[in-house]
Amino acid sequence: MNCIELRNVVKKYGKVTALNNVSFTIECGEKVALLGPNGAGKSTTLKLIVGLLRPDNGEVLVKGLDPFSTKARGIIGYLPEDASPYLMLTVRENLEYIASLRGVNNVKDKVDKLLDFLALRQYEKNRVMSLSRGNRQKLALALALIHDPEILLLDEPLNYLDIPTQERVISLLNSMTNATMLVSTHIMSIARRLASKVIVLSNGQVVWQGNISDLKKFGEENEPIESIVARLMESVK
């Protein structure tokens, strides 16, 4: 079954076309990277899937449903690129509030587990406005995971995290074998560690998709994504 499907999607911001006739499908249980340079349309794609934007043309489906439906929104966990938890609430209050909205059982146990795993326990009584960017990112990830979503949409999930925390997050995400995951990133090494398939976006269009192992022939993982995309474009001419 397809968990995510885009059919000939077009999205414009005024005169700027962010997505131009984008189509792809992601089967339930797949781990997929949405790879491309800054400005390629990755964040716009995730916002369409989570129901923050509507396409100007085409169709977006989440398990066959309109992303704006209550049922679709209930099965998605979303980490935006510039996450902004409730600044005046404490870390724990943010987690407990979102957990209550999501209908989570055993809220205290679930919150405690995430606080400990993401090394946020010492900040649980601190207001979010006082946190570093790294700790805000960890909280935003915890908020996306609090209800054990079927589908995870993660926009640059390792931003602002130190190396040990990155490794813990990668381990956690890889352990979620039943979840469908779409990870947006401009770094090939992150895509390789979190996904088995990849969709490459450039200038609002899908320029390549397939197994991530097949992408290696177009460049090394430490190369700038712009160089890899240039080789991809040459290969399809």
Automatic annotation (TrEMBL):
<protein>
    <submittedName>
        <fullName>ABC transporter ATP-binding protein</fullName>
    </submittedName>
</protein>
<keyword id="KW-0813">Transport</keyword>
<dbReference type="InterPro" id="IPR027417">
    <property type="entry name" value="P-loop_NTPase"/>
</dbReference>
<dbReference type="GO" id="GO:0016887">
    <property type="term" value="F:ATP hydrolysis activity"/>
</dbReference>
<dbReference type="InterPro" id="IPR003439">
    <property type="entry name" value="ABC_transporter-like_ATP-bd"/>
</dbReference>
<dbReference type="InterPro" id="IPR051782">
    <property type="entry name" value="ABC_Transporter_VariousFunc"/>
</dbReference>
<keyword id="KW-0067">ATP-binding</keyword>
<feature type="domain" description="ABC transporter">
    <location>
        <begin position="4"/>
        <end position="228"/>
    </location>
</feature>
<dbReference type="GO" id="GO:0005524">
    <property type="term" value="F:ATP binding"/>
</dbReference>
<keyword id="KW-0547">Nucleotide-binding</keyword>
<dbReference type="Pfam" id="PF00005">
    <property type="entry name" value="ABC_tran"/>
</dbReference>
<dbReference type="InterPro" id="IPR003593">
    <property type="entry name" value="AAA+_ATPase"/>
</dbReference>
